[in-house]
Structure to design on (300 residues):
């Protein structure tokens, strides 16, 4: 069995696209299509149903995909068993992280991980959208916030405390609020992936420990973390964000904490990865390393 053809088929099946699979594998689309065609010829059955707009697994393809994944995982384990001691891990890792955790925690420590495993290649995504781990070929993702129902394995790391901040220029114009009632004369920068203004609110925890939302006016809405921070720095409104990403601005005096007793609830941080009977050593290694470097920055 040709493992290169197997890997190519698995990636096409997971992404439901020859073009996207070619991009991720660093291959020409024609080579990807040829590899799948040859695999189907070897097996004597059609694995994928192609149309001009979509790619779908046939019934045989569905059965073969699960066995192919198992076989590739076992091959990785076997290869690792017979590598010389001290040869290190090999292969490519794809992980997705939040902007602040990548910038302030993970990337500064990444040189030590690669020094220990010089034959690894690491691809890091910091997109604001929620990636699909399986379909986009990620080995693991770090999610900040409440998780939705998922078939993925979850490793809970801790929580990110949040902070309320505003720029000195904004506070000079509008004053510094002290109570919830005073928020009626203030505005926030609203973060929304669809750029909708409905839902702008001040989040806080009441005396009974229950999370609450107070509707507020927002003069600007953004759909990216960098824009969210930049809008606050520009004096367009107050924001509520993880302390980790705001600490450097507070220490520099470019942002000022406000209403410290009425902050939003802390955000859970979790590592997610796919169910695997035999996890490749490189994936296990990066999961353990991310846990080690990120956990000390989180509240328990």
């Amino acid at each position: 069995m040709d493992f290169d053809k197997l890997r190519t088929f698995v990636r096409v099946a997971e992404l439901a696209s020859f073009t996207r699979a070619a991009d991720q594998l660093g291959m020409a689309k024609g080579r990807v299509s040829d590899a799948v065609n040859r695999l189907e010829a070897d097996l004597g059955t059609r694995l994928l149903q192609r149309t001009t707009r979509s790619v779908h697994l046939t019934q045989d393809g569905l059965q073969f995909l699960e066995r192919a994944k198992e076989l590739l995982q076992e091959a990785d384990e076997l290869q690792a068993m017979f590598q010389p001691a001290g040869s290190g891990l090999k292969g490519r890792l794809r992980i997705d992280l939040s902007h602040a955790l990548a910038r302030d925690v993970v990337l500064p420590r990444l040189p030590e991980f690669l020094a220990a495993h010089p034959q690894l290649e690491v691809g890091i995504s910091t997109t604001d959208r929620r990636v699909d781990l399986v379909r986009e070929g990620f080995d693991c993702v770090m999610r900040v916030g409440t998780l939705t129902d998922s078939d993925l394995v979850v490793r809970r790391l801790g929580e990110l405390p949040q902070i309320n901040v505003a720029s000195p220029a904004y506070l000079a114009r509008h004053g510094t609020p002290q109570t919830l009632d005073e928020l009626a004369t203030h505005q926030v920068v609203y973060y929304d992936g669809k750029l909708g203004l409905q839902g702008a609110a001040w989040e806080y925890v009441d005396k009974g420990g229950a999370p609450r939302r107070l509707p507020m006016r927002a003069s600007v809405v953004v759909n990216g973390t960098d824009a969210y921070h930049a809008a606050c720095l520009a004096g367009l409104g107050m924001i509520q964000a993880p302390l980790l990403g705001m600490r450097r601005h507070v220490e520099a005096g470019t942002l000022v904490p406000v209403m410290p007793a009425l902050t939003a609830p802390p955000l859970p941080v979790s590592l997610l990865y796919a169910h695997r009977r035999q996890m490749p050593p490189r994936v296990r290694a990066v999961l353990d390393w991310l846990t080690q470097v990120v956990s000390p920055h989180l509240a328990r």
The mean pLDDT is 89. The CA atoms of residues 55 and 166 lie 49 Å apart. The chain is about 40% helix and 25% strand.
